[in-house]
Each structure stands twice: as C-alpha cells, then as structure tokens.
Amino acid sequence: MKRDWKRVILPGLVFQSVLVGGGYGTGAEIGRYFGRQGLWGGLLGLGVTALVWGVLCGLSFDFARVFRAWDYGSMLTLLLGPWALFYDLCYAAMTLIVLGVVNATAVQITGSVWGAAAVSCGTILLVLWGTEAVEKAFSVWSYVLYGVYLLFLLTVFLRFGDGISAEFARREIGTGWLPSGLQYAGYNLVCIPIVLYTVRDAASRRDCLLRGALAGLLGTAPALLLLLAMACDLRCAVGQTSPVGYLFDLLNLPWLALLFQIVLFGTLIETGAGFVKAAADRFSVTGGQYRTVRRAVITVLVTIAGMAASSLGLTGLVSRGYGTVCWGFLLLYALPMLVRGRRMLNRRRH
Fold it and tell me: Which domains does the chain have, with CATH numbers?
C-alpha cells in the first residue's frame, strides 16, 4: 500500500508547532539548555533530545493506535488508573506556564498587551474550528517556519560565517550537555500526548515508530538552525533574554526581523492552541448535547488563565517553571510508558 507521506510527517509538524512558541522561538530556551554547552556540546545535547523524543513519540503513537486512545486523558487513565489525576494537575500547571510564556512573548514582540490579546483570540478561534483545521494550519505554518528559519540562518552565515566557523573550530563541549539534553527533552514530554490525534490513521507499529522518529527530528530542527545562527557570537547571544532579537540587532535588516516576528507570532498561536485543544479534548470527551458548549467554555477559561500567568514574565517562567514540572512528566508519563506501556503493548501483541 502506498504510504501517504503527508500523514507520516503530520505528527512531527504538529509536535514542532506546539514546541516552538515562546522561549523556543526567541532562542531563550536554546541558549539556556544548549548554547551554554558550547556549539559542539549543544549539538550533542540536541541529539540526545531528538533521540528521547523519537523513542517516546514512537512508543506513545503505537500505544494510542492499539488502545484507540487519541487524547492524553484516555492514554494516562490506561497507564496510571486513578493516579491519572496527578498527571492532570501537572498538565494544568504546564499549560499555565506555556500560555504565560506565549503571551509574554507576544507582548515582547508587539510592545503592547494587545499582542497577548491577539494571540489569545487566535488560539480560541483555531481550537473551536476543530481538529482538521488545527492539523491543516499547523502543517502549512510549519513549512513557512522552516523556510524563514533557513533564510535567517543563511543570512547570518553570509554576514558572520567566520564567527560560526571559528566556533566550530573551538570544539567546545560543556560537561552538562547530556543532562541538559535530557532535561530539555523531559520538560517538553508534555507535548507528545497532546498530538496523539494526528496518528488516528496509523496502520501498524512500524508506521508509528517511523512517525515518532520523524517527530523527534522535526521537533529539534528549528533549534538546530537557531543554535547554528547563535554560533556567530555564542557567548553574547546566550546571555540575552531574546538571543534571536540580539542577532537581528547585529544584522540590522528590519524586513527580515519583521518577517521572523510574523512567523513567530503565528507559531505562538499554534503553541497556545495545541495546549488548549488538549485540555478541551480531555474534559469534553463526554457531555452529550452540551459537549460543544463545554468545549467552548474550557477553551475560553484556559486561555484567559494563560493571559494572567504572563504577568510573571518570560525569563522567570522559563527559568523557574519548566524545570520543576519536568519531574512530574518524567514520573507520571515517561517512566510508566517505558515500563507499563511497553508491557501492555507486548501482551496485546501476543
């Protein structure tokens, strides 16, 4: 049977879309977790992150296919039983942190609270348009993002290629590249159960593993491009609240900066929509004739709560919030999936 490659790469595109908004897109997270390890150390750390995401994506996609669990609530209820409540609490905390980062970044980009309002309105509209609209929007915008990121890297290389070459020649590998790669992968594990609906048509275990591997690669691809661009002046870039903004100051190309901001702004909406959609799916699985109303109410309330969380600021949210909640997803999702999830799949296959 001919493989539909658009469907094969869809989970990776949606996964990347949910990841990139906020601290990822501005380079804040990339500098903190990878740039501080030196260029070579950062590349090794990204490899670790891609491997972890690829393995857990593939396993989770197969679990969703076998047990027909297309939302994170269904999956975690099967894995954890009554303990799934604790995952819900961790997810609620992470959603508020992510939406806070998204809205803080929107304010940073536009210089006004109206930026956050625009992102929130876009998030609500995208979620309420439905799953197919979300998949299509995420896919199309991902291609736009990859194109602009490549253009950005090419421009930096043409202007400051000597600096990037010199950074490669330094061969610096920080001692923390492995824990940094694992930690970054860990606190973004929440994004994997969010995209389970994209593998509804998966036909086999091999298909799920392939989609998972591609998701790991596609999820880290924008980070790779940003890290290479930051290498032109790595030590200064990693110390900035927005390394990408610092690089644009060096380039002094307003048109490219504007284009990048437009793409990032759209990605902020995608990230917010991914998290809000997952919450709406989780709590509107039942509800009969009131299901649509419940979904709309949850969407609006979660989005408003995210706007309130943005008052903590971008740097504070990235540095304090993510690392703490990371442990919850390791204990309540990664370990159960690797141990009990694999055991359940093996029993079902036999």
Answer: 5-340 (1.10.4160.10)
